Amino acid sequence: MSFPLLTATALTPAIGAVATAAVPAARRTVAKWLALLFSLATVGFAAAVLLRFDTGSGADRYQLTESRSWIEDFGVRYELGVDGIGVAMIALTAVLIPFLIGAGWHDADPPSLPASGQEGPREGEAPATRRWRPTQGFFALILMVEAMVILSFAATDIFLFYIFFEAMLIPMYFLIGGFGDRAGEQDTEEGQARQRSYAAVKFLLYNLVGGLVMLAAVIGVYVATADQLPEGTFSLQAILEARSAGELDFGTATERWLFLGFFVAFAIKAPLWPLHTWLPNAMGESTAPVAVLITAVVDKVGTFAMLRFCLGLFPEASDWATPVVIVLALVSIIYGALLALGQRDIKRLIAYASISHFGFIVLGIFAMTSQGQGGATLYMVNHGVATAALMLVAGFLIARRGSRLISDYGGVQKTAPVLAGTFLIGGLATLSLPGLGPFVSEFLVLVGTFSRYKAAGIVACAGIVLAALYVLILYQRTMTGPLKPGLEKLPDLRVRELTVVAPLIALLIFLGVYPQPLTDIVNPAVEHTLSDVDQSDPEPELPAVEAAP
């Protein structure tokens, strides 16, 4: 098509970020509405991508493609294109950002102004002593992350993908370190600042190390293609075509090393055990919208890239690594759930629950079945929506009380029944209750895993039981029972907060009852991915039946 729709989709939030940052400091409200306007415009472009994408059987694998020469001497091109998985992830990103902006409407306000759900500065703390950064910067950084994530989902040039895969770390670093949660465990602003800085630096170092390993593998891909093709290339489509035509073969040892270079970077981003330890710190010290941005949007780039690059570029190595990856995924499922059970911090509990859920996603990807990979893709979408609903309501609750500790709450449903109800629905979605979106995803992942790896499927089922425990115990301790002192006048959800949460809950119900529109988009891409790794679904095991005489 002549109009660069994918570029426009990514460029809209980037322009919005620049425009929002340029608003004078005295015009905070203008900056907020401007950021919201650009995020809604991005939703419009993402809807156009969804409508223009062809799910028919004869449709091309990558659609809405754009290709322009960029760094010609090194074979780098500006190449974009989306398959069904990319379309689903772009839609998820575009839909969530307006809700995050609405939820964080007051999160970057100066301390002298009331924060979300608060009457003013915390007791005993003078407003003038609290440091703050310009409100415009908070919303500009969110929009910049959105632009880079969309380009990561659309890039079909490996080097172009790497650039945005790494570049998104910069605005995320400032969002974690500069606009952290004001309800930290430390009593002083200096102590909270140290915690935020530690979380931001840990996030950056982990992901930078993974990126450097990946950079070596990206260069290795170019060198390997230059040896066998007329010229080296970073184009994913060119590499796939050359391999299918028998013109390119990395060789067993080379392919396995290159696979590891990519996989380590994606496993850190995912995050997969044992490379996960940055996530609880980052989510715990971030505001609720930034915590959602991390786990529901940014981290999905890691699991998405496993499907597009690890399985697409290195099929033999993916098959070779599958047993180890499945073990790591199972450890993530059980380990994350057990640690969630032991948490006393609401945000860290949700963070460890996300580690467990990412284990399910990786398990589905490497089960190498259509049900598993289809379920994993649906899980990426549904987990993003469910985590957004749960974390944002938790953020509203924490802002009212000024504490993240579970022990500081109790009986909230007596004074804030709507808040408690939405918190319950978000929690039930997290434990994959039938009728809500994540149930369909988790069911497909388990079906796909059982059909090939029965023992792994049995172990993964323990994660379902543990999820029910940590979600229901969290709800029981915070929302039921006697009303804790100090919560007598806790306000219920306001109109702005309910406007943020209600559509997410409606989307969870819709995807739980009628997931077919999403599966129709995703399934053709899953079939292509299975074809890349030369896998097909196992034959069903049916009991032998004797023919009638």
TrEMBL record:
Principal location listed in the UniProt entry: membrane
Keyword Membrane: yes
Pfam families, per the entry: Proton_antipo_M
Subcellular location: Endomembrane system; Membrane
InterPro entries, per database record: NADH_Q_OxRdtase_chainM/4, NADH_UbQ_OxRdtase, ND/Mrp_TM
Signal peptide segment: none
GO biological process terms held by the UniProt record: ATP synthesis coupled electron transport; electron transport coupled proton transport
Domain NADH:quinone oxidoreductase/Mrp antiporter transmembrane: 155-462
UniProt KW keywords: Membrane, Oxidoreductase, Transmembrane, Transmembrane helix
Membrane-spanning residues: 31-51, 85-105, 138-165, 203-224, 257-278, 290-314, 320-342, 349-368, 380-398, 418-436, 456-475, 495-514
Enzyme nomenclature, EC number: 1.6.5.11
GO molecular function: NADH dehydrogenase (ubiquinone) activity; NADH dehydrogenase activity; ubiquinone binding
Membrane topology: Multi-pass membrane protein
A Gene Ontology cellular-component term: endomembrane system
Domain of life where this protein originates: Bacteria
Entry's family note: Belongs to the complex I subunit 4 family.
Name of this protein: NADH-quinone oxidoreductase subunit M
Native source species: Streptomyces triticirhizae
Lineage: Bacteria, Bacillati, Actinomycetota, Actinomycetes, Kitasatosporales
